[in-house]
Structure formats: C-alpha cells, structure tokens
Amino acid sequence: MCLHLRVQYYIRNGRQIADEKVRSLFCADLKNRVLSSRCYEQEGRYFQLAAYALQADLGDWKEEVEPYFSPQDYFPPWILARRGCDYVVQHTPELHKELRGMSAHESSLLFIEEACSLSDVPLTFYSMSKVGAQT
Q1: How far is CA 97 from the centre of its chain?
Q2: Tens digit of each residue's pLDDT (9 = 90 or more) over 28-40
Q3: ω into residue 71 within 30 of 0, thus cis?
Q4: What Rg, from alpha-carbon coordinates, does the chain have?
Q5: CATH code, 2-129
C-alpha cells in the first residue's frame, strides 16, 4: 500500500516574513520550485516571474548589457523547449524594463506572491509506503 500526500503550506504574502535573510531563502526556494513547475496553461506567468526575479537579482534593466541573463536560471525546461532560448531572451527584457525603479525588496515580494499563485509551486509531495507484513 502506498499513500501519496500533497501538503500546501506556504506564505503567500512575503510581507509576513519580517527577517530579510529568511525572506531571501524563501524566495530562493520558490525560484527552484518555479524551475520545476509544470503549469503549462499559465506560460505567460513564468515570463512575469522571470522579470520580477531579474529585477530582484540585477536591479534595473541596462541596455548596454546583452545578453544579461541565462534563461535556464529563470525558466522551466519545458518553456525553453517550447519557445527556445532566443525567444525568451528576446521577450523577457520588455517585461523587465517595465519594472524600472522597483526595489529588489518589492520585486521579490511580488515574485513570492506570483509564484505561490501557480498551482504546483506551493506544494510539497510526500509518499509513504507500508513495508512488511501486517500481523
């Protein structure tokens, strides 16, 4: 017998995390979860998430720096397979430009909120198996 559990226990509002280091670690965990997320019907949301993450990581977009990010660090593999790295590198900067002037703190809070709205990101999966004979 095998029991599978999905547990959803994530803070959707990053403002509830008072400590900056804890918020940074939480955001890093969410970034990793976004990279393995498979919400195929919400492709556009991943582009917005990448823009928030770029603003938090790099600050304002700078025209003279190109290419300025690695798509593999900000997008799940299925988007890169579907769209290609060239498409991602071409279209993501426009969203990043729109965030000009936004602080790293604010963009990380928006990243947390948006990432937690994906159905498979704020979940932890557990599997439990019964081993041995029952008496």
Answers
A1: 19
A2: 989 998 999 999 9
A3: no
A4: 18
A5: 1.20.80.10
**DSSP 3-state assignment of 57?**
helix
Query: What sign results for the dihedral spanned by CA atoms 89, 72, 44, 10?
Result: negative
**What are the boundaries of each domain within the chain?**
2-129
Tokens of 106: 């604010």
Query: pLDDT tens across 73-112, in order?
Result: 999 999 999 999 999 999 999 999 999 999 999 999 999 9
Per-residue CA distances from 55 to 9, 43, 60, 95, 123 (Å): 26, 19, 6, 10, 25
Per-residue pLDDT at 123: 60
Give the global pTM.
Answer: 0.81
Q: What pLDDT shows up at residue 120? A: 79
For 74, other C-beta atoms within 10 Å of its C-beta total 23
One-letter amino acid identity for 124? Answer: T
CA 129 distance to own-chain centroid: 31
Separation CA 52–CA 47 (nearest Å) = 9
